Batch of 2 targets.
Target 1
Amino acid sequence: MIRFRRVTLRPLNAWLVAQPVTGSHRKYQLRVWREVNANFAALRDELIDYAQEALDDARARIRKGFEDNLSPFSDPVDDPAAHYPAMLNRITLQGYLGETLAGLAVEHFGAFGKTDWHVPAFLFRFHDQEFQHLDLINERFLMGEPHAPDAEEEMRPGRTGDDALAFRLDAQGKITHVLALEAKCLATSNTGTISDAHGKLAAGPRRPSGIRELITLLSDYETDAAQEWIARLLELYRDGFRTAKRRDGLAYTVGHWPVRPASRVSWLPSDAPHTSYTADRRFDAMEFQLEDLKGLVDTLYRGA
DNA sequence: TTGAGACAGCCTAAACGAGG
DNA sequence: CCTCGTTTAGGCTGTCTCAA
């Protein structure tokens, strides 16, 4: 565990307002939240802190090669993480937002009727392609060259692997539940993307690949909390995954909500998972409908 | 050994179809 | 006939497989 921030629930619930959803399925549940942008100001600062803390590990990773005191790059002016993530392509930032909201929802709203889910770390540091891209961006700044972050040619592929993982523990601290979260964040809803997300979750193994990445990541931290998590994740990786319960979660963030028919509340199906979901696990679908997606990305990641 | 081609992951944008 | 929603094609890079 290397992240601890929470936002206060009252402003959060006023900003993301839960919508009533009908539908009863044995293993599938949909929840929908709709943004009330007018209520964002009260949450703004907290949410920025939350989103930035999620990226702290990636920043530390970027800086790691420059820690040597003899390095001429140790001057903060040349901070290799200075443009992270603000100068990355908007689509990348949207992806980060989606993953962050997935974690935020699980930590604040709960899932499967439980509110004791833990997200020990986010996996942003494994986005190698953007790290390499960042080198190029930094070079441009050093050379005084222009950089247009949202130009099409600045787009980079997404990261492979799990978008986020959450866990529940028993009284002894042993991991009892693993929640694999797939996150999507689109300006406009896309059924193909919904289908893909369901398919990817269904294909997920009982032991998600992200567990190994989490262990690797946490190994960089010497705090007790990090070490405790390494121990329980190692146990899960070696043997615990056989008995721990695996759950699936989809966090679908969209920049608008359905207009027609008037009765329609969500883009995601409400009664049963999409047909491309072929697994038989408990599945928690979360949909976030934003009034101002672009503005949120700018606020959280570009200091606008 | 090189190279084409498919894939994976992130989405957007244009084209299409159906309903009011 | 216009608008909204769905489908399809496309762009980015790195990796991997199969073929010449």
Target 2
Amino acid sequence: MHAKREKWANNFSEWFNEVIETAGILDVRYPVKGLYVWLPYGFKIRRLVTELIREILYRYDHEEVLFPILIPETEFAKEAQHIKGFEDQVYWVTHGGLDELNVKLVLRPTSETAFYPMFALWIRSHADMPLKIFQIGSVFRYETKHTRPLIRLREITTFKEAHTAHASYEDAERQVKEAIAIYKEFFDRLAIPYSICRRPDWDKFPGAEYTVAFDTIFPDGRTLQIATVHNLAQNFSKTFEITFENIKGEQEYAYQTCYGISDRVIASLIALHGDDRGLILVPEVSPIQVVIVPIWYKDKKEEITERCFEIKEKLEKIGIRAHVDDREKIRPGAKFYEWELKGIPVRIEIGPKDFEENTITVCRRDTLEKIRINADELEKIKDIFAEIYKNLKNRAHEEFNKRISFVDDIEEAKKCIKEKKVVRAFWCGEEECGKEIEDKVEASLLGILLEGSRSAEGMKCVNCKKEAKYEIQIARTY
RNA sequence: GGGGCCAUAGGGUAGCUUGGUGAUCCUUCGGGCUUUGGGAGCCCGAGACCCCGGUUCAAAUCCGGGUGGCCCCA
């Protein structure tokens, strides 16, 4: 059994905005368009999510750094494709006090042009590589489209970007695969389903040789790009003079990759697991994993409260983040709704009956199922976490798969898109034909499916009917 | 990229056409008494016309501009 998902399914946009505010994630009333305030509860989720990616990146030998937010125009404009891709969406700092600056500064929209002049100084020989570093911080983009909390921001506050340099193209290719593995683990642990596509050339990162992207599917049928991995080859190293002495003693340009994830992970976490009662958090990133609500009864009040705190301590001893909600003015029912809205995976109730019989009443947020267990069997809570994770993951994957339609006719593709589906079809690989597909179905060609794709052998292109080379994914996007 | 709608207490609304003491129900917050196994009841209290300019004796209301929000189409 699960709580209803009617509003979530039918009126997603409203549901999302409401939950973000009422659950205490963001305050959207900050007086600048596209900028929002992280509230304490949202900030805790954000911290746990960034800790998770940090842990994985460290395990894969990445080192963390922090670069300045301002980039001089002279560096920013060096790479022709890059500036072309970003010039219409950067914020400029043009003045220092009343003086006009000689060299204007951009608020970084991404940090390649901040990192790479330093790479040129740091890298001297093949022994300095692979160089793998990352940072977590804000980037700024002057979005002209409709801004949305966590989805389309003017300040992306949680941009987790990694930059690497390598002594060979092969090693950069290996790094692309490693980055994909890192992101797969990250999203898997958050129970977020995704597809992995190689973006078409006309939609790759400005300055990259190619771009691989992770997309998930939202309840309204639109896809959301949640991570990208770029092979930069030698494009940036040539403009930023990042050279190294190779084994043969020759100077060579470095091979580079970069990859990033934004606040959209948290948007997905909220959107994909929630229901009409609010959030449902994956236990690993829930600021409170177990909330304990005392059910007071006349003369037993103090003993029951005491028991609650004993349980909390025992839970903390076995590594569970627990909280006792002992607010006096709010009745238990109101507390239940509030913690459900916030997505706390497990609630424990301790009332007079539990007190007498040394039991606790355990309620799961995902299924709302209530059971009573012995108060000495707290290890069982960990099993319940595992079950919640598994259940959320299965449910999200089912939703994801339900949204995908396999199509071999362009009219049918158009129809499916209209019905809020994500389309998979075969494609000849020609750019002209690909753009024609986008025009015809009024959606974006997300790219060539890299994982879980069907063989294109003997298949025909969905549009031109010539020999197909790849399976592609087409969708309306955020 | 194009078009439309909107802004009044923490949230949701009425008032605006026809300028004249800013109201309402539901809610939020503070205080008090009774309560507590799924959103408690009663009493008392707090809190608002988005910003800048114009018209006017007088602007929430009319006019201009700005900022912010939402929706539809491409």
